[in-house]
């Protein structure tokens, strides 16, 4: 009988028994209990009962308060068989098999529930730590020996979790790598072991020349070889010769005459090559004596200069074609970013209003994938997400990315919390990186404290952080799917933010330069133009300190240094010193990143950004103390790089921009002072060309031409999105400058060309 039926009858028998039941009903229920006994082994929970051997059963109870829900489906719940069952005897229901076999001794297995005699003072059985339950499916009582039925017992074991629910996956005490290695060793020892050789009648006397011990050693060494090494072993221990005499071929015979004779060799105990027969050679290596396919394949490879493994070269018939997935992902127009261009040149970013779940849902809608679709036509969410990762596309906020150097060190030294330094190159590089970013952060906090203590706007010293915000797309219409797929206009925001918390930044205002790609791009000259606008805004301040990240294309280049030398020695400003300080790579979070977060919140609050003027209002509404400058064409200039390559290359020791952490420009001095360590000494650097020292640095040339966008992109925006905009927002898009020679900033970087 099925064990489920057994439990059903047993539960029915226990539930129907009560103090009001008749004696006949109790007898009938007791017979059911004795007919379908329940055997539970290795149960981890408490079971108590009181029983007197040879007398009537007074009370039987099983505790359901500690049994888990999953187990209670197939086990009896708590019940009480009262004195109405007094007509039953111990032979009808007992706790073990001693009723049928007086010599029966319960097996002493671990975690098995034993029966406590009534003479004992113990009223319960302690819980086991191993959550396994084994239920006998047979309704008949029978004597068994667990040691002879280990396989059957292991199949009937139900593993439970710590919470008591049935474990869905089998729990192993060893790791997957150990189980794989053990499985491989078992296969080697059984399938590819040394097999019986050629016998005593062999003409070459192989068994006499090579002992069984030597055969075992050769077999073990051969099985430890890789596939390539095994082929090389076979080739090196065989020789092929052309037969000296050939027999005449029978034209009616199907047997093909041998074109070559193969001789096989093996090393004996004295490391001497001994000729052996083919059968002995194959069986020693673990192959069957009639299976010489491995020999033929290896000898074919001997004719080729390079041995190649052709296993796994056939295409997988179940492989999913990723081309439709890639085309769908690219339809969202992932854009390259200015941020960390040197460290992640091939990485692309999608707009912040997107997520993978919405992209996958749109893909299923377009491809017609439903729950009723065939398995070969379905693409899972995990596979779609994996393709996005392989394309190196990210949704992460650029200001909060992790440090690659720190991540590499964690992989290099997993015990970095306990063992900090292991006296190797990787650890030494990390120690230097760790010390640099700790010192840089301390200097940043010191300048932040100075800025927060300045409550007077007439102060002659300012401390700001500078950064370019991540890519922003316009128009921003999250509710409409067509807006996500349409290539849109890229907006830029170069922010100059006072150091300190947003509520306690002193009297200074945030200064933001905003523009779009039809006016200018994000080349070196475009970023320097924003620095020019900032310094002209605060032309009466005498000392300005700027904290920047280590993006060399924007914040650390000789073009910027040449312009700052020109500016501080000009009459356009009253500056006496300009100091640029650079945070360590990977640890560049500063007040500008916090401001960019506020801009993102303002954009989400407005929900819809139709044109550039709406973006200007969103940036202006972040907080009260902010000055937003809408950059026009006349605000952008062309700046000349006045550095002397000859001076820089012949300098000893040579100075590299990447090593600089602090650069200072002073009035009436044509050199810069720099540090490679915040706690190090300050050094002077003369990098200007001789002619610029004599005649001076030329004034920046103002641009007069719009950069423009591709004509096709403008027409796509007008055709697809203009109907979704109010009438008073459409003029901006109709008047957008066009230039088919401009670089598409969504897919490509705009390289700087120095003339």
How much of the sequence lies in strands comes to: 5-15%
- The total of helices stands at 25
Largest sheet data? 10 strands, mixed
Q: How many domains comprise the coordinates?
A: 4
The tally of strands reads 25
Instruction: Give the overall average pLDDT.
Output: 75
Please compute the radius of gyration using only Cα atoms.
Answer: 42 Å
Overall structural class, as computed from helix and strand content, comes to alpha+beta
Shape: elongated
Low-confidence stretches: 17-100, 108-154, 339-344
Termini Cα gap: 93 Å
Helix residue percentage:
25-40%
Description:
The protein has 755 residues and is α+β, with helices and mostly antiparallel strands. The protein has four domains: 3-159, no CATH class; 189-244 and 259-302, no CATH class; 323-350 and 355-394; 425-734, no CATH class. 33% of the residues lie in helices and 13% in strands. The protein is built from 25 helices and 25 strands. Strands 12, 13, 15, 16, 17, 18, 20, 22, 23 and 24 form a ten-stranded mixed β-sheet that branches. A hairpin with a 5-residue loop joins strand 22 (662-666) and strand 23 (672-675). The chain is elongated and about 110 Å long.
Write the layout of secondary structure elements.
Elements: H1 3-15, H2 23-35, E1 40-41, E2 49-50, E3 59-60, H3 69-72, E4 132-135, H4 150-156, E5 157-159, H5 176-190, H6 206-209, H7 212-223, H8 227-236, E6 238-241, E7 261-267, E8 273-276, H9 278-284, H10 293-302, H11 323-330, E9 335-336, E10 348-349, H12 356-367, H13 381-390, E11 393-394, H14 404-412, H15 425-452, E12 461-468, E13 472-474, E14 476-477, H16 481-485, E15 489-498, E16 510-516, H17 524-537, E17 543-548, H18 552-555, H19 558-568, E18 577-582, H20 591-606, E19 608-609, H21 612-620, E20 626-630, E21 637-638, H22 645-649, E22 662-666, E23 672-675, E24 683-685, H23 690-695, E25 701-702, H24 711-721, H25 730-734
């Amino acid at each position: 009988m099925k064990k489920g039926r057994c439990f059903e009858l047993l539960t029915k028998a226990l539930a129907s028994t009560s103090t009001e039941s008749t004696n006949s009903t109790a007898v009938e229920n007791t017979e059911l209990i004795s007919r379908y006994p329940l055997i539970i082994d290795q149960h981890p929970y408490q079971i108590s009962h009181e029983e007197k051997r040879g007398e009537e059963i007074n009370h039987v109870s099983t505790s359901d308060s500690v049994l888990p829900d999953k187990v209670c489906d197939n086990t009896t719940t708590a019940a009480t068989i009262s004195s109405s069952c007094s007509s039953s005897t111990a032979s009808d229901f007992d706790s073990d098999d001693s009723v049928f076999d007086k010599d029966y001794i319960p097996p002493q297995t671990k975690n098995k529930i034993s029966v406590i005699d009534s003479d004992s003072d113990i009223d319960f059985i302690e819980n086991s730590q191993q959550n396994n339950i084994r239920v006998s499916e047979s309704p008949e009582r029978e004597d068994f020996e667990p040691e002879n039925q280990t396989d059957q017992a292991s199949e009937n074991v139900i593993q439970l979790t710590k919470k008591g629910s049935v474990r869905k996956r089998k729990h192993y005490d060893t790791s997957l790598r150990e189980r794989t290695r053990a499985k491989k060793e078992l296969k080697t020892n059984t399938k590819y072991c040394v097999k019986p050789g050629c016998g005593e009648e062999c003409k070459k006397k192989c068994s006499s020349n090579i002992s069984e011990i030597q055969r075992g050693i050769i077999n073990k060494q051969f099985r430890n070889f890789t596939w390539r090494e095994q082929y090389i072993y076979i080739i090196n221990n065989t020789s092929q010769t052309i037969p000296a005499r050939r027999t005449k071929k029978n034209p009616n015979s199907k047997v093909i005459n041998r074109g070559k004779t193969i001789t096989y060799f093996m090393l004996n105990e004295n490391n001497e090559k001994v000729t052996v027969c083919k059968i002995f050679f194959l069986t020693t290596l673990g192959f069957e004596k009639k299976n010489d396919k491995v020999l033929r394949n290896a000898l074919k490879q001997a004719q080729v200069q390079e041995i190649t493994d052709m296993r796994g070269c056939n295409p997988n018939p179940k492989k999913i074609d990723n081309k439709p997935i890639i085309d769908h992902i690219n339809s969202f127009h992932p854009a390259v970013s200015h941020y960390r261009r040197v460290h992640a040149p091939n990485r692309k970013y999608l707009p912040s209003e997107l997520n993978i779940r919405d992209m996958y849902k749109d893909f299923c809608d377009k491809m017609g994938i439903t729950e009723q679709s065939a398995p070969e036509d379905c693409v899972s969410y995990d596979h779609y997400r994996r393709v996005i990762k392989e394309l190196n596309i990210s949704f992460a906020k650029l200001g909060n990315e992790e440090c690659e150097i720190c991540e590499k060190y964690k992989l290099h030294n997993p015990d970095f919390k306990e063992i900090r330094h292991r006296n190797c190159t990787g650890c030494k590089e990390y120690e230097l990186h760790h010390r640099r970013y700790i010192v840089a952060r301390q200097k940043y906090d010191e300048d932040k404290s100075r800025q927060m203590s300045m409550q007077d706007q007439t102060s002659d010293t300012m401390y700001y952080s500078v950064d370019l915000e991540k890519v922003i797309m316009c128009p921003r219409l999250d509710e409409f799917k067509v807006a996500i797929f349409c290539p849109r206009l890229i907006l830029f925001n170069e922010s100059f933010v006072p150091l300190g918390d947003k509520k306690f930044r002193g009297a200074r205002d945030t200064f933001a330069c905003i523009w779009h790609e039809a006016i200018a791009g994000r080349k070196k000259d475009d970023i320097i133009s924003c620095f020019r606008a900032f310094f002209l805004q605060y032309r009466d301040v005498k000392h300005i300190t700027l904290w920047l990240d280590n993006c060399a294309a924007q914040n650390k280049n000789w073009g910027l240094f040449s312009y700052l030398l020109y500016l501080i020695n000009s009459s356009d400003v009253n500056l006496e010193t300009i100091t640029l300080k650079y945070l360590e790579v990977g640890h560049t979070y500063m007040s500008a990143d916090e401001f960019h977060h506020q801009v993102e919140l303002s954009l989400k609050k407005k929900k819809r950004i139709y044109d550039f003027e709406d973006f200007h209002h969103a940036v202006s509404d972040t907080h009260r103390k902010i000055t937003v400058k809408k950059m026009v064409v006349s605000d952008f200039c062309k700046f000349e790089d006045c550095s002397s390559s000859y001076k820089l290359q012949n300098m000893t020791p040579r100075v590299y921009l990447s090593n600089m952490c602090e650069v200072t420009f002073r009035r009436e001095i044509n050199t810069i002072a720099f540090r490679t360590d915040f706690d190090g000494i300050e050094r002077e650097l003369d990098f200007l060309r001789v002619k610029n020292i004599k005649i001076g640095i030329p004034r920046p040339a103002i641009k007069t031409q719009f950069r423009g966008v591709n004509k096709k992109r403008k027409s796509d925006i007008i055709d697809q999105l203009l109907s979704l905009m109010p009438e008073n927002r459409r003029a901006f898009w109709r008047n957008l400058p066009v230039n088919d020679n401009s670089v598409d900033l969504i897919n490509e970087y705009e390289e700087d060309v120095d003339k």
